[in-house]
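Annex B. Sample input.
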Amino acid sequence: MANAQLGLKSGFPRAHLANGIGRFVGQLQRVTLKFCKNHGASRGMRDFIENDLVDYAKSNPGVVVYVKPRRHRGPVIKAEYLNGETHWISCRQFTRECVVKHMELVRTQSRDSSAMRLRKMWHTEFPSIQGPWTPFTFRDPKLNITELPNKEEGACPKYEPTATEEIIRLFKEQQLEDKRDVEEKQLKN
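Annex B, continued. Sample output.
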């Protein structure tokens, strides 16, 4: 494990409140764009505000967008979600396209998922009470003390005929009986 992950909370990937099961509810509640009107590091943020902000607000009516100019401070995107979490992205020296990508990122994610160390890539809320299935689940326990190689255990198992094999056998018997009936009729005539 990397040292950078030691301070992170650990958890499992999951959809908050089963979002998307009935219908999808966007989790982004509020976005605050903080920038400086003069400083060169805020140029990408200013370009985004001038060119793309109105279209972003029209296409996302459930998101409240605040614009907050600050003097002599770096540009920041502050995203607030329905679950109360806040995510900050520093946009220093970003281009307009980078700001557009990060605005789309905060809109589509439900929280700062990079701040969580995943314990497993999958998780279930209702695990099986019987435990996981393995090929040895229903095997006879005497196999644990059997000396190997063993001719009895190594022999190919003999199964009953399948339904298809049984139907083929019955069909062939019926054909043989029909042949015998035809031959008996020919002998009588």
